[in-house]
Specification:
The protein is α/β, with parallel strands linked by helices. Helix content is about 45%, strand content about 15%. The strands form three sheets. The protein has a ten-stranded mixed beta sheet, with helices on both faces. A six-stranded parallel beta sheet has the order 15-14-13-16-17-18, with helices on both faces. Strands 2-3 form a two-stranded antiparallel sheet. A hairpin with a 2-residue loop joins strand 11 and strand 12. The longest helix is centred in the first third of the chain and has 21 residues. It is globular. The protein starts with a helix and ends with a helix. About 0% of the residues have low confidence.
Length: about 550
């Protein structure tokens, strides 16, 4: 059922989305800083996101503490904002956030080494409910994911979403010291921002990265405010998606909804004289993850994790690490293990799944339902197969630190990432990065964006329980030499295409657009054609 390593490597190129190393070699934070200086001329850079890079809170003893959310986006974008002493605009969500800002709602960060300004936007509880929980996560999130949860669209949520986007746009405009800043917008929470910013700052260069999938034109047509969303998005100069397929879906959506001109070869959309470039920028992680430096060896990690969770030394250990979300396929993962144990009684007592399910959006009905179903399936399957001290499923239902997650990965024989749908899924890349012993097997959903790059994983249809069960079986029986070869190739991919390169490729395209704008009108067409040729060569 699963390809050998040679068959995997002989797959046609169009099935992959692996980027070749470019002339810059290894991409680092320093590379990004040089790029901002040399290619962009050190403009003012404003990053805009719903989540803030630093959260101020109060500890149990009342002391002020700073939390740094685990986020690849922060890792990628901070060097850019640092390089030009820029501004990060985000929702101030921490309990002590208001206590530490100045009269203009700003605070210098990072703590202890301030390099840029964090500008906080304040939302009333009902605004946050409608904008974030409502339209963003009960509307757009299920609409864009192939998980068959019906999206909820309410007029009140849409009103809150528009209002919050307007507040963010006003904050960005106030923070812009120059008429032509570079503005980097993150994700589906802020889809209206490009047009709202363009109205206030017509000379700004605006790039938006959409982190989740973009569905087919027919699917997106379900949204009552589809035309307005797409029209506002297309006011950006660059829109980035995780995969080329999502780019094609977006172009088809724009073509179906609006009067516009689409260049499918160059992937541009022209609306009312404005040209928007659409491109794939697969996001990644920092290489190597800095938390790895403080972790014990793989052998020590294996012994410690097994002892901590009551898993025997001779048990094949699989690990899953997810938010408790209906898109992640946790229930299907449990059922796949059940199917394997039913078909292979000899594996009872010899394989176990350690599942981390961090609570997420627990106030929403769809998330409450998936939690109940997950717990019920775990109890049923464990009751069916458990014997002596062995349980097939061990559940950890709390958030884990980055160090804890990486140690779990180092302890595992295989990692299960069977998302029903994912824009990228960085868990798969974190597992690969954790395995400096070049061991372990990745079982990966074909519906995760990472499957376009990590082609040496065992790729599965997560909706097919028997196929996922067969992948688990293949993972625990795979010879050491094949595991090493697959892991070595995946590690090279993640190293070359790290999160700094993700940000750098967007910035190179932004720099190209800004140079083009400064050219005399009669020079622009041939210059643009040459830039497109260079860009195509870089991405080939």
């Amino acid at each position: 059922m699963f390809r050998s390593i040679r068959q995997t490597l002989s797959r046609p190129f169009q099935d992959r989305q692996r980027l070749e190393p470019d002339h810059r070699g290894s991409w680092t934070a320093a590379t990004l800083q040089r790029l901002v200086r040399d290619e962009l001329g050190s403009p003012q850079v404003i990053v805009v996101s719903n989540r803030e890079p630093y959260i101020h809170d109060r500890g149990a003893d009342g002391s002020l503490r700073v939390q740094v959310p685990a986020s690849g986006v922060v890792t990628a974008l901070e060097p850019i904002v640092r390089a030009c002493a820029g501004v990060w605009v985000a929702h101030g969500s921490g309990a002590a956030d208001r206590e530490v800002v100045d009269l203009h709602d700003r605070i210098r960060v990072p703590p202890g080494d301030p390099a840029y300004a964090l500008r906080r936007v304040w939302l009333r509880a009902e605004e946050a409910q409608g904008y974030y929980c409502g339209f963003s996560n009960e509307g757009l999130w299920p609409l864009c994911h192939l998980a068959y949860v019906r999206p909820a669209f309410r007029e009140s949520d849409w009103d809150a979403y528009r209002s919050v986007n307007q507040q963010f746009a006003a904050a960005v405009a106030r923070e812009a010291r120059r008429p032509d800043p570079v503005i980097l917008i993150q994700d589906y929470h802020l889809a209206l921002l490009p047009r709202l910013i363009r109205q206030r700052k017509p000379d700004a260069t605006v790039a938006l990265f959409w982190h989740i999938p973009w569905p087919s034109a027919e699917t997106f047509g379900v949204c009552p405010w589809k035309d307005e969303i797409v029209r506002h998005l297309l006011a950006a100069d660059v829109i980035g998606f995780q995969t080329r397929q999502y780019c094609r879906n977006f172009l088809a959506t724009a073509e179906q909804l609006l009067e516009c001109r689409i260049d499918h070869e160059r992937m541009t959309v022209t609306v009312e004289g404005h040209v928007c470039q659409v491109a794939a920028y697969p996001i990644s992680i920092e290489w190597p993850p800095p938390q790895l430096a403080g972790l014990p060896s793989v052998a020590v990690s294996r012994a410690r994790i097994r002892r901590q969770h009551g898993i025997g030394p001779d048990v094949h250990l699989g690990v899953g690490v997810e938010r408790w979300d209906f898109t992640k396929g946790i229930v299907e993962r449990f059922q796949a293990l059940e199917a394997l144990l039913a078909r292979r009684p000899d594996l009872r007592g010899r394989v176990a799944l350690l599942q981390v399910a961090a609570p997420s959006r627990a106030q929403l009905p769809a998330y409450q339902a998936v939690q109940r179903q997950t717990l019920a399936e775990m109890e049923r399957i464990n009751a069916r197969f458990a014997a002596s001290s062995w349980r097939p499923i061990v559940l950890v239902d709390r958030q884990q630190s980055a160090e804890q997650v990486l140690e779990l990965f180092r302890a595992a024989d295989f990692c299960l990432v069977n998302s029903l749908h994912d824009g990228m899924n960085l868990v798969s890349k974190e597992f690969v990065a954790a395995r400096d012993d070049e061991d372990g097997v990745l079982v990966l959903s074909a519906f995760a964006g990472a499957s376009r790059e990590l082609v040496e994983a065992l790729l599965v249809n997560p909706f097919c329980i028997s196929e996922t069960a067969a992948a688990i079986e293949a993972a625990i029986s795979m010879p050491r030499e094949e595991r090493r070869e697959r892991m070595r190739l995946m590690r090279r991919t993640v190293m070359d295409n790290n999160v700094h390169r993700w940000a750098g490729r967007m910035l190179l395209d932004v720099a190209s657009l800004r140079r083009h704008r400064r050219l005399p009108a009669d020079w622009r067409a041939p210059q643009l054609a040459q830039q497109e040729e260079n860009r195509a060569a870089r991405l080939a």
